[in-house]
TrEMBL record:
CDD domains in UniProt: RNR_II_dimer
Keywords on record: Cobalamin, Cobalt, Disulfide bond, DNA synthesis, Nucleotide-binding, Oxidoreductase
Name used for this protein in its record: Vitamin B12-dependent ribonucleotide reductase
Family: Belongs to the ribonucleoside diphosphate reductase class-2 family.
């Protein structure tokens, strides 16, 4: 794309001046909708606990490659008009047209386009990118743009409050209007006098913590009555405020109250009837720390708390003691988080206008008080080429279109208050970001916590922000720089040089990130050149938001900067069914790393059964890191998250919405280290969450869960009264084999080692004994095998189920291992692994083997041909499944019960990896609990009742798209 301008022209009114656009994604002469196969679907959403239907709209229209989950979330969240009325939107086309055409008109009205033809190209390119799920605007755009409602496009707001009652009451009112519109807000309370200072009347001030109560109650009320989402808010207090210790302890003390009330019999679960009696639960709290304080912590010196009126020190505290109190409170209840004031303001493009004092609720947007930011996020996996390299050039083209659209939206946007509207129009803050980073890195064979993974993420982020500011300078050459640019020009250009210098320090690890880095370097050079000539249209350009609901709209596996949540996923099917599937990026990653088809199949089967890659057959241990996830047996270490954030932070205008998850066993010292290293590594903000630190979280009832136990409860608590009951002893009975029984002998080779297995069965066909022949008669190995055979045989006869032996001995890894001569078991990790897979195939029914991911060669071939592993029988000349499928789908629907078909960007179908019944789970979080036997500490969705999963600094429901407050 190019730009038409001349000389110092910066006005929008000059005839013939504007941006010109070249087609990159759409096709000339063909509307983007005409390149897509569309289909009709029924969207029905129920609360799985109550069985009640919470939403129903039939015959909605979506592209055939959109998942059921994506179409459901868009229909329920973003279609406008009363359900059942003629005005209700029925198609994705209507939704996209409503938004894109409004953006085109805004561009035409404000002189952005050189000609009507350029406006049409802009419209088509934007439409193509949206319907093909390459990016999405934030939720308020889909809620409001093109409707009779106010055209609010921003999801992130920062307010301000001064030390006066008028200002405090105005804070309550402004927050309420923002919550009503479905957005969140944050502010810094540090201007309010502390409870240790006097009023002009001679009395003592109430302090900011007391005023937090009223705001919290207001947020809780609007949350329960809001039509779009729960209220979300951030409260920040400077570390030198005299009430800082009271602020730090606020939510931790409320957590103590929750425990006491729970133990007294009150319903204190999240969403429970009595939880509303607890205060401060509707806000995220953060402490704003300075470099001065952090150095005092580092050196073990005192630190002064200062009067709000004249800045004098009114109290001195031990910095390390205060630091420990902050970390202890975060250990107890996950609050407060940390914001690093000097780092934030060192990257501030508008310091002449004012300091950055606060953030939005999720901590990614940091800018001037009384301002807002509209967001958009790209789906990174869409830019992965067939050779498994990232298409940086195509990515940059998409960024140019999206930044242009985001800036246009400020021209027609409405704002909840005049002061916010004025600041936003004067500084035009944007927040472009991305999702699916975790899935992209895995598909490329890069570990999330590796030098290669961090280099790839850093170069992509640098290219995104560099391209955004380059485009911002080009737009400034046509319609002028932002109003506040002139007084902040030197500071803005200084920050651009800081970004460029950070880009120069990146050291590419592979050819893939080296190619992207070259593009980023060129983009930053153009930023300096064009910025010096035209200035910039936008004070800020990029953030990394949680991408909760819009991530599902784009069918992303991972949100924001997050790693993959789990390797096994929950997938909805048309007709109400659901399946468990292995993450589709795993086979691609394995092929990228050189594994053969047989090896890929064996590894995927292992993951389907176990939920992790530990001891997967044939997988080299140096490749384990590629498949590390946020949860599970190979969960990333906390500092792995911090290091990834640090790699990307220098290339963002704002910050990163992300919570560093720690295990329940984590110590206060570990939280101190996460917060301290975050400061050292140059992050702008950090939040932590220790599993099960909150009482008001529902626990799983699955195996291995925490059934209401309290990790913070004293070990010497009073014992519970118990009843004395009579002890009954049950003794097993041995079922001996008949004198004459049916047996089979199997010869086998595993990794070049030969052996024989003889198995005998009862009259009903149930396995009762095995004999193994390995090594020479009289050798140690032969003796061990005889003893093992006797032990297993006796166990079988005493009632130990064969499936128990199969689950324990399959995937056992030792030499000899490798290829076998058995077509049903192509590869084996050990002789034991082979023997019990063979026994499962010989003696277990299909349903039990399917649950363990063990299939015969015929069944795998049947899956490739029909999409189902299940055997068929002939009835009346027609082939039917022996077992009824979980859910049936229309012929035109590309998803089936035992295998799920997906589509690439050209529409060609590709077969996914094996799918299995979803084990009574309703989301991927619940599925992980079923597989691993451990509880995931997340709240339940208020809409559909399923367990949510972490997304940035909040939670998102993958069942219905609801969030705990993020866009």
């Amino acid at each position: 794309m190019t730009e038409t301008m001349s000389g110092a022209q910066t006005g929008a009114s000059a005839a013939g001046k504007g941006l010109t656009f070249e087609r990159t994604f759409s096709t000339a002469g063909v509307h983007p909708y005409d390149e897509i196969t569309w289909e009709r679907r029924d969207v029905v959403q129920t609360n799985w606990k109550t069985g009640a239907t919470v939403f129903e709209q039939k015959n909605v229209e979506f592209p055939d490659f959109w998942s059921v989950n994506a179409s459901t979330i868009v229909t329920t969240k973003y279609f406008r008009g009363a359900v059942g009325s003629d005005t209700r939107e029925q198609s994705l086309r209507e939704l996209v047209d409503r938004v894109v055409k409004t953006y085109r008109k805004g561009g035409e009205d404000n002189g952005y386009f050189a000609s009507p033809a350029d406006a049409e190209v802009f419209e088509h390119e934007l439409t193509w990118l949206l319907v093909h799920q390459y990016f999405s605007f934030n939720s308020p755009v889909w809620f409001n743009v093109g409707t009779p409602s106010p055209q609010q496009v921003s999801a992130c707001f920062i307010l301000s409050v001064d030390d006066s009652m008028d200002s405090i009451l105005n804070w309550y009112k402004e927050e309420g209007f923002i919550f009503k519109g479905g957005s969140g807000a944050g502010l810094n309370l540090s201007r309010i006098r502390s409870s240790k200072e006097l009023l002009s009347s001679g009395g003592t001030a109430s302090g900011p913590v007391s005023f937090m109560r009223g705001a919290d109650a207001s947020a809780g009320t609007i949350k329960s009555g809001g039509a779009t989402r729960r209220a979300a808010k951030m409260v920040v207090l400077d570390v030198d405020h005299p009430d800082i210790e009271e602020f730090v302890a606020t939510k931790a003390r409320e957590e103590d109250k929750i425990r006491a009330l729970r133990d007294a019999g009150f319903d204190m679960d999240l969403g429970g009837d009595d939880i509303t009696s607890v205060q401060y639960q509707n806000a995220n709290n953060s402490v704003r720390v300075s470099d001065e304080f952090m150095r005092a912590v580092e050196n073990g010196t005192d630190f002064g708390l200062r009067s709000r009126k004249d800045g004098s020190v009114i109290e001195t505290v031990d910095a390390r003691d205060l630091w420990r109190k902050i970390a202890t409170a975060a250990w107890e209840c996950a609050d407060p988080g940390m914001q690093y004031d000097d780092t934030i303001n060192d990257w501030h493009t508008n310091p002449e206008t004012g300091r950055i004092t606060a953030s939005n609720p999720c901590s990614e947007y940091m800018s001037l008080d009384n301002s807002s930011c509209n967001l958009a996020s790209l789906n990174l996996l869409k830019f992965l080429k067939d050779d498994d390299t990232f298409d940086g050039a195509l990515f940059a083209k998409a960024v140019e279109f999206i930044i242009t659209a985001m800036d246009i939206s400020i021209c027609f946007a409405d704002f909840p208050t005049e002061s916010i509207g004025q600041t936003t129009r004067d500084y035009r803050q944007l927040g472009i970001g991305y999702a699916n980073l975790g899935a992209l890195l895995m598909a490329m064979g890069l570990g999330y916590d590796s030098d290669g993974g961090r280099a790839m993420a850093a170069t992509i982020t640098s290219l995104m922000t560099g391209t955004s500011y380059k485009r911002s300078a080009e737009i400034a050459g046509v319609v002028g720089p932002y109003t506040g640019y002139a007084r902040n020009a030197d500071a803005h250009k200084r920050v651009m040089r800081k970004h460029q210098a950070a880009n120069d320090t990146v050291r590419p690890v592979h050819i893939a990130d080296e190619q992207v880095h070259k593009l980023a370097t060129a983009a930053w050079a153009q930023v300096q050149e064009l910025g010096a000539k035209h200035g910039f249209r936008n004070a800020q350009a990029s953030v990394l938001a949680p991408t909760g609901t819009i991530g599902f709209m784009m069918d992303c596996d991972t949100t924001g900067i997050e790693p993959d949540f789990s390797l096994v996923k929950f997938k909805k099917l048309v007709g109400g069914g659901s399946m468990q599937i292995v993450n589709q990026t795993i086979p691609r990653a394995l092929r990228k790393m050189g594994y053969q088809p047989e090896q890929v199949e064996a590894i995927v089967d292992h993951i389907a059964a176990e939920g992790h890659v530990i001891d997967a057959p044939g997988l080299r241990q140096e490749h384990y890191e590629v498949f590390d996830t946020a949860m599970g047996a190979r969960a990333l270490a906390p500092m792995g998250h911090v290091r990834m954030m640090a790699a990307c932070q220098p290339f963002l205008s704002g910050a990163i919405s992300k919570t560093v998850n720690l295990p329940e066993t984590a110590t206060v010292e570990e939280i101190e280290d996460v917060y301290f290293q975050s400061w050292k590594l140059g992050l702008k903000a950090t939040a932590v969450y220790r599993d099960n630190c909150k009482v008001g979280q529902p626990m799983s009832s699955g195996k291995g869960d925490n059934k209401g136990t309290d990790s913070n409860k004293s070990a010497d608590a009073a014992p519970v009264e118990t009843k004395v009951v009579e002890k009954v002893v049950y003794a097993p009975t041995r079922k001996r084999l008949p004198k004459s029984r049916v047996s089979r002998t199997t010869s086998f080779t595993v990794g070049g080692a030969e052996g024989y297995m003889t198995s005998g069965a009862h009259a009903d066909g149930e396995l009762g004994e095995i004999f193994l022949k390995l090594g020479k008669q009289g050798s140690t190995l032969a003796g061990v095998m005889d003893a093992f055979s006797i032990a297993v045989s006796i166990g079988l006869q005493y009632g130990v189920p064969l499936e128990t032996y199969v689950s324990k001995f399959t995937n056992l890894r030792f030499e000899p291992a490798g290829l076998t001569d058995d077509p049903d078991v192509r590869m084996s990790q050990s002789i034991m692994d082979y023997i019990f897979r063979r026994l499962a195939l010989d003696y277990l029914p299909f349903e039990q083997r399917q649950a363990m991911g063990i299939y015969s060669a015929d069944e795998r071939q049947r899956y490739l041909e029909t999409g189902s592993y299940e055997p068929v029988v002939e009835t009346g000349g027609a082939a039917e499944l022996i077992d009824e499928p979980v859910a049936s789908a229309p012929v035109a629907e590309p998803e089936t019960v035992e295998g799920v078909v997906t589509h690439d960007t050209e529409g060609a179908s590709q077969r996914e990896v094996p799918a299995q019944p979803a084990k009574e789970a309703h989301t991927s979080a619940e599925l992980m609990e079923k597989i691993t036997g451990t509880a995931i500490d997340s709240p339940l969705c208020f809409t559909c009742g399923t367990k949510m999963r972490p997304a940035g600094s909040c939670y998102v429901c993958e069942g219905c798209g609801s969030t705990s407050g993020c866009s």
